[in-house]
UniProtKB/TrEMBL annotation:
Species of provenance: Luteibacter yeojuensis
Name of this protein: 3-isopropylmalate dehydrogenase
Quaternary structure and interacting proteins, as annotated: Homodimer.
Reaction equation(s) it catalyzes: (2R,3S)-3-isopropylmalate + NAD(+) = 4-methyl-2-oxopentanoate + CO2 + NADH
Cofactor(s) demanded: Mn(2+); Mg(2+)
UniProt-annotated location(s): Cytoplasm
Keywords, comma-separated and alphabetical: Amino-acid biosynthesis, Branched-chain amino acid biosynthesis, Cytoplasm, Leucine biosynthesis, Magnesium, Manganese, Metal-binding, NAD, Oxidoreductase
GO cellular component: cytosol
Amino acid sequence: MKASIVVLPGDGIGPEVASAGVAVLRQVAQRFGHEFAFTEHAIGGDAIDRFGDPLPPETREALLAADAVLLGAVGGPKWSDPNASIRPEQGLLAMRKLLGVFANVRPLKLHPRTAALSPLKAERTKGVDLVFIRELTGGIYFGAKTRSDTDATDECRYSVEEIERVLRHAFDLARSRRRKVTSVDKANVLETSRLWRAVATRVAADYPDVELEHQLVDSMAMHLLTRPADYDVIVTENMFGDILTDEASVLAGSLGLSPSASIGGPGAGVYEPIHGSAPDIAGQSLANPLGTILSAAMLLRHSLGLAQEAAVVEAAVDQVLEHANLTRDLGGSATTHAVTRAVLDAFTAKAEAA
Ligand code: NAD
Ligand code: IPM
Ligand code: MN
């Protein structure tokens, strides 16, 4: 098949991990006879430096014409002055809004070797296999903002339509898994959460074969550490999902392992690791590329319908997690390049066998 893939390297370790993802996708194209056209565009701090805009018009145009988008990460200390008027993160949010990708899918699977590196005891993390659906284009991220010398506000607003569509996404996904949805809110305090809970209860009536449980976000943060194996699909609003998914990623051993897919819009899906630009390790080939490589696998499956290719990439990553020298965040001493090379080698061997 032919596909046009927009690559947004961004800032910090973004370009390092994005090029690992592209290398794997190129290998997929070559081995399976596809034609992927990659075009790189500016986003984030890099785009501010070059164009004075974190999501320049030419990037927007390319996004609207793409079949899929692979992103590294944006942001860094250079652009983080609390008084700055333009910020790299605005580019990311504008892109999500532009593409209408309201469902951010963040799976968490444990591999026995890396689970041993989790700060939690092995008996607690045994059997963990969950997926977060984070609402991505609404809530406090996109509400009205004000700031004066004496105060500031961030408005949190959700419409029934925004809540309902992401909940349906979660329930549909649960049907292909263990048929359990945990809806996370703060309904004891927030009006948006009370609306969220009411909509969740109503939508659940259309899915009698799926169990719905409501959970308050503060205790959810605890349960993720005390009984993570009890969860299947966890659905929540934008900011709660941002925070809980970084927390949960550590169960698997490292933030650097977690992929994501942002989907649900009329056009391209966006695929990116959940981590940020990691300024503390940028430019040293220390970044773990596996979260991005697993995001590339999600791109193959969700945007291009290439399930077999995605499975071979995932199997190659599994093999690397099993045997290879890994990056420093996972206790190893391998470079980003070496781990990427190990995935490419494992992929080639598996593709030949497939
Ligand atoms: P971060 O995710 O960049 O880093 C947190 C910690 O995890 C750091 O110690 C980092 O070294 C480590 N880490 C992250 N990814 C890693 C990887 N692939 N391999 C090894 N170690 C890894 O979070 P932060 O430091 O709070 O944020 C830095 C910047 O990134 C900020 O400007 C923030 O806005 C931005 N950010 C961007 C995205 C994105 O582009 N999607 C996501 C999160 C944060
Ligand atoms: C993420 C990031 C972004 C978010 C930031 C950089 C705007 O943390 O993708 O998880 O909060 O959504
Ligand atoms: Mn985040």
